[in-house]
Amino acid sequence: MQGGVTGILIQGSNGEAQHLSHSERFRNIVFARQTLDDAGFKDVVLLAGTGAQSARETKELCVQAKEAGAGWVLVLTPSTWAAAMGVENILKFHREVADNSPIPCMIYNFPTVTAGIDLDSDILSALATHPNIVGTKLSCGNVGKIQRLSSAFDSKSEFATFAGKSDVFLHTLLSGGAGTIGALVNVAPKIHTKVYKLFLEYQETKDASVLKEAFDLQAKISAADWAVSKIGGVGGVKAIVAKEFGYGGGTVRNPLKEANLGVIVQSDLGGKWWSAVEEVINIEKSL
């Protein structure tokens, strides 16, 4: 939190939500909320992933998330029966979940983990009119989709559009989006905060040099974001945080694999990826 982030997502894709039992999810949320409160961050947003493969289970997880202390939920589209998930069923699923969730819902669009199901801006615009659906996390990284949604709905008051990748963080802000909820923020929160502050300064001053500085940092963020995805995905993020910041570990649950950074960085391609990550980490530690 001292890195400047304004909220925490627990049990997203990098949190291995699909590998956790209901009781584990509940305990994690309780622990996260209590830790934030004890550290003086009682006003910090806690968003919990509640995606499951049926509306019934998803609704149960939403209720449990509220009971555990979450303020919002992030709902992934079911994908076991991908062929059945046409527009009508997608809308029906998310509306039923939102109707029954005791806390506001955000739609999580991540085609990589939903068998290629990709919610387009028309579907998301239709869902945005639901009173209990308040935003979306777009891990598809589609800047055009971000632009269309941000233009149609005010991210501050109507429907918050977040990038799901740091790769397009500044682009999202310039499009009117709310920000980013991405894996790289776990590694380098301060550099993201720096870009956000530069964006706000540019909005106020219209100073082109400020925008250039923001884009220069964004270029480094984009390179590191891509590299992290290649260095082992979920296991890579955990291993990097443990190595560079001294907490956590690289343990992941089967079938995911732990990332052996020592081996990866010795290869030509792995070394190139690590250089991009290391550059951002060095900036992070200087801020």
UniProtKB/TrEMBL annotation:
Binding-site positions, pyruvate: I181
Active site residues per record: Y108, K137
GO MF term set: 4-hydroxy-tetrahydrodipicolinate synthase activity
Keywords, sorted A to Z: Lyase
Pfam families linked to this entry: DHDPS (PF00701)
InterPro entries noted in UniProt: Aldolase_TIM, DapA-like
Protein family according to the UniProt entry: Belongs to the DapA family.
Name of the protein: Dihydrodipicolinate synthetase
